[in-house]
Amino acid sequence: MVDTDAYIQGLMVTNPLVEPIIRSAIQALQPPSESRGLDAGCGIGLQALLLAEAVGPVGHITGLDLSPQFLAYARETGERAGLSDRLSFQAGDVRELPFDDDAFDWAWSTNCVGYAPLEPLPLVVELARVVKPGGSVAILAWSSQMLLPGFPLLESRLNATSSGIAPFTRGSRPESHFLRALGWFRDAGLEECSVQTFVSDAHAPLSGELGRALIALIEMRWPGVEPELTQQDRVAYRRLCLPESPEFILNHPDYYAFFTYSMFRGRVSRRPGE
Ligand SMILES: C[S@@+](CC[C@H](N)C(=O)[O-])C[C@H]1O[C@@H](n2cnc3c(N)ncnc32)[C@H](O)[C@@H]1O
């Protein structure tokens, strides 16, 4: 069972690294001011808040998620940010959105639609259904990470473990991998499909906030990895990746790391005559 409090804590702690990426993606997407957008799989609403800022006081964002706990947290965060008049949060399933056709000007989903294990194409079709012709559908997800500068082979071997390839499961079809989303968009009949990758990076000396965010990322990236490592890699992993180690890599004066999110987007086709 997922520990909701720990999960929320993880999202909050990593947010200083994720937020700059989300801001860049929103800037690239340019949601029109006064528009109505959907954030599908909104979690605790961190992106919905930024989207609400982008659409201005007359715009509106609907955040949808399966989890009532996340939605309650999102509502509180929206109130604290003074944005609750342009935000609403609703329980629902991205596989069957509880909205009419053409209900939104655009739709967005971060780390949900396109993220294993749900079959992606029907979800993109469902997002497109609720967006008006001419509006955009955008999905974003984590796409790569370099956290161990100077140790690329160790990092590759950590990434090659079953914990390292999460959320992509062994045996899943290559076409289901998030970085193949152009194919889903094309098959969903979306137009002007494109993809763009955004980076967030950090270097020494790290602020306390960024240090905590990177520690959380390292823990999220390779959880429970040790049983799958050789003895030599296990020693190196403990030396470099555990905060209690005297040689913890984040304490190195030359430390530099980055990670990326990729955003796929397409436009819902106009009907003949529009
Ligand atoms: C990895 S989290 C991402 C949350 C948020 N978008 C973010 O990036 O911080 C995935 C979210 O999708 C939600 N989710 C998973 N399956 C869903 C479904 N079938 N319908 C709606 N939400 C779903 C989860 O509850 C969770 O909040």
Description:
By secondary structure, the protein is of the alpha/beta class. It is 36% helix and 21% strand. It has 8 helices and 7 strands. It has a 7-stranded mixed beta sheet with strand order 3-2-1-4-5-7-6. Helix 1 (4-29) crosses helix 7 and helix 4 (120-129) crosses helix 6 (181-187). The longest helix is centred in the first third of the chain and has 26 residues, at 4-29. It is globular and about 65 Å long. The model has no long low-confidence stretch (mean pLDDT 93). The structure holds S-adenosylmethionine (SAM). S-adenosylmethionine (SAM) binds at residues 11, 41-43, 46-47, 65-67, 70, 93-95, 110-112. Residues 11, 41-43, 46-47, 65-67, 70, 93-95, 110-112 line the site of S-adenosylmethionine.
Overview in brief:
The protein has 274 residues and is α/β, with parallel strands linked by helices.
Order of helices and strands: HEHEHEEHEHHEHHE
Summarize model confidence as the mean pLDDT: 93
Can you tell me the residue ranges where pLDDT is under 50 for at least 5 consecutive residues? none
Distance between the termini: 48 Å
Number of strands: 7
Q: State the helicity in percent bands.
A: 25-40%
Question: What is the beta-strand fraction?
Answer: 15-25%
Topology overview:
Blueprint: H1 4-29, E1 36-40, H2 46-55, E2 60-65, H3 68-80, E3 87-91, E4 106-110, H4 120-129, E5 136-146, H5 152-159, H6 181-187, E6 191-203, H7 208-221, H8 231-241, E7 256-267
Parallel strand pairs: 1-2, 1-4, 2-3, 4-5
Antiparallel strand pairs: 5-7, 6-7
Helix pairs in contact: 1-2, 1-7, 4-6
This protein binds S-adenosylmethionine.
